[in-house]
Amino acid sequence: MAPDLLALSALSLEADSLRNGDPCYPLPSDSSKNAPNKAAAAERSRSDPSPVVGAAAAAAASSPLLSPRPTLMRLETVKSSECLEALMLSPSVRSTVSGGLFSPRIHSFEPHPMIGEAWEHLRRSIVYFRGNPVGTIAANDSVEEVLNYNQVFVRDFVPSALAFLMNGESDIVKNFLLKALRLQAWEKRIDNFTLGQGAMPASFKVLHDPVRRTDTMVADFGESAIGRVAPVDSGFWWIILLRAYTRSTGDHSLADMPDCQRGIKLILTLCLAEGFDTFPTLLCADGCCMVDRRMGIYGYPIEIQALFFMALRCAKTMLKQEAPGNKELLERIDKRLNALSYHMRNYFWLDHHQLNSIYRYKTEEYSHTAVNKFNVIPESIPDWVFDFMPMRGGYFIGNVSPARMDFRWFLLGNCVAILSSMATSEQAEAIMDLIEERWEDLVGEMPLKISYPAIEGHEWRIVTGFDPKNTRWSYHNGGSWPVLLWLLTAACVKTGRPQMARRAIEQAEQRLSLDGWPEYYDGKLGRYIGKQARKLQTWSIAGYLVAKMLLEDPTHLGMVSLDEDRNMKTLMTRSASWTV
Ligand code: GLC
To answer: Rounded CA gap, 98 and 121, in Å?
Structure first.
């Protein structure tokens, strides 16, 4: 595979920086362009009596931008001292448009000392390509083996991007979105097989040649990844982030660009393609998302289904109605959204009532009248789920396919279901109730469990293939991931339960910085720093910042949340399934 580097170097983004002969990134973002806004924002924050406190202001108050020039990374282009000037003089607080409203910015509380520290770490993780910031590396750990943690992962960059957007720094996000789009255009091959055009990379890396003073890029679409699985989530996150950028900045020109419109369509072409499927859900290989190792999530994992749903809804808001072929495409999106929401809300949903009905299922039913449509054998229900299921609460289970229900809890999919409104408002409330009821299990001493419960013994051997990284209560197998804090917080804000998020954040604040911002924690309660966890893991840092900013300024929620579409309310009543 020979990446088209010549084509890449012709990108306007890079060309601009070369034309200007300025290898210096005017950090943070476009201070000059926004100079008029700065005065307006200052004026607003003086006069706005709203008690809502902007976390961006808090972050700025702890002076991340006034802190010493971020340590330059190995990969980035050397900067001149003028950059430091630009950094020091840049606006520490900028207006951010969120949900059409300007966020109030009032410094009325003492920010947590971790906020300043987190911003410093986040800035040090920035990766530059030809002088422009294009993303953040996965981890800045100098001790653990690097593997691919020195790359920019698409999914990992999402919380970084949100933090930057919430702080009014949109350039890095725009650059990232454009860069990922260029990479999508590469020819992607694994051995002799060519991947679909729409596939987005899991990660990319900037290679800096200090002698020739050139930067080049390599990307990984799964052909180098452990397990060789393509990241199905990357394209969805890209679409979701493009909408977040548009909502946050009010700048529609990026999403309207023909290249972006094409990028969206290529992703959709991949996942709306017709095949032999009998379900509207997306069939996936194991390890195709955040859980990127064999963990028995093959089939129809909840994480992908929720992201798919959200990406479809986000794409709908950005695709130009009048463009040729878009009318049909939008109709296909609508149809799929309807079918998907019906399927998910009915067949993936589990609460006490539903569990009881599955427990009493008859099997071997044939024809349309079948209640137990997928022929799930009640004996396959694991014992733990009967104790785990509270009387009040419910959740979307991990996977549903013929004769197989994976009852495990996965936080990411459930939170994205809330944010995208794939969950009805009742279901969203029930998910939050369940988290509240099962706090010890799902939050424990370090938020948050990626999945619950862990698989062990024979099951672990069969399902993971003896994976020593995914032993019980570690890593993807019941490990605790601080990055998930932002998703929980967003779900809490959406469902009006900020106190829950506050509690989880306070829990994290007791250890996260002291422990060096680990990637994940191990143990039933998340008490131990993960066996192979990287330190200074960027998304643990960014996830914390986003959680803080969301809580302090709930208007940011509009970037990552979509209201319920009432037309989609096609929930099958339970009695229907009982009486047929
Ligand atoms: C691990 C995680 C994956 C993440 C990557 C970089 O592989 O499983 O979700 O994107 O590390 O942090």
So the answer is: 25
